[in-house]
Design a protein that fits this description.
This protein is mainly alpha-helical and 259 residues long. It contains ten helices and no strands. The two termini are 33 Å apart.
């Protein structure tokens, strides 16, 4: 086996070990896992039933709300990533891992893999609840897979933004400062309401929100009635652009931790 192949195998093994470590944490903290799955369902029901005036999630708004809530949940996943990374930093866990003979990026890969697996579960739960409420994807199975792929791509971009911000913040207490920004930015989108119903300047901001492109493209691929086509490429390019910025920033910041 060549030196490069041995190095790659070592890195993959270490990354899988870190992923298993994160998955084992699920078993030790099942309540947190359940909360992460139930919280988006509560948001869906709240905006569908309570904010909907008690009339229930029905008609066109149901077709509009479920894809939007899926996109919103992918954005809010940034907070969970930040909390997990800052907790490990604060307890010195990452420093201990970095002192061990293991691939330097395995810690980040394990964090990313675990968060993406959890995001798959969240999407499955929300789709299941949406289906129970009467929502249906009308675009066919390939389009359904494409929509899920766009959601996970957006989550992957948010994940690396979360890792970078966590490495910059360093302490769990700083996550609250980021939450003050994440929630307004998340709701400043077309996840819950159409830009046409907003004042002109606000609608323009909403249309430029990367999450709005993901939500619109997902509605189109799900075949939602009245969905606006033509946003799939924007829903791909925005996350890829965010990844091009924040992935190297996170890797560079992580490499500087021990300096």
């Amino acid at each position: 086996m060549s030196m490069s192949m041995a190095t790659n195998t070592h890195a993959l093994t270490d990354s899988w070990t870190m992923t298993r470590r994160e998955l084992a944490r699920w078993g030790r903290q099942p309540v947190q896992v359940v909360v992460n799955l139930v919280f988006p369902v509560m948001l869906l029901l709240m905006f569908g039933y309570l904010m909907g005036g008690g009339r229930g999630v029905s008609g066109e708004y149901r077709d509009y709300l479920v894809p939007g809530m899926l996109a919103l949940t992918m954005a809010f996943g940034l907070e969970g990533t930040m909390i997990a990374v800052t907790q490990d930093l604060d307890k010195g866990v990452i420093d201990r891992f970095r002192s061990m003979p293991m691939a330097s990026g395995a810690v980040l890969v394990g964090r990313a893999a675990a968060d993406m697996l959890q995001s798959v579960l969240v999407v499955a739960v929300l789709v299941g609840v949406g289906s129970a409420l009467g929502w249906r994807a009308h675009g066919g199975f390939p389009a359904f897979l494409g929509a899920v792929g766009l959601l996970l791509l957006f989550r992957f971009a948010m994940l690396w933004i979360g890792i970078h911000l966590a490495l910059v913040a360093g302490k769990p207490e700083m996550v609250q400062a980021v939450q003050i920004l994440v929630w307004p930015v998340g709701f400043l989108s077309n996840a819950l309401a159409a830009p046409e119903s907003m004042p002109g300047w606000l609608g323009t901001l909403v249309e430029w929100n990367p999450m709005s492109h993901t939500a619109t493209a997902v509605r189109d691929l799900f075949g939602s009635p009245g969905a606006e086509p033509g946003h799939v490429w924007a829903a791909v390019l925005w996350p890829v652009g965010l990844l091009a910025v924040f992935f190297p920033l996170a890797v560079r910041r992580f490499a500087k931790l021990s300096r």
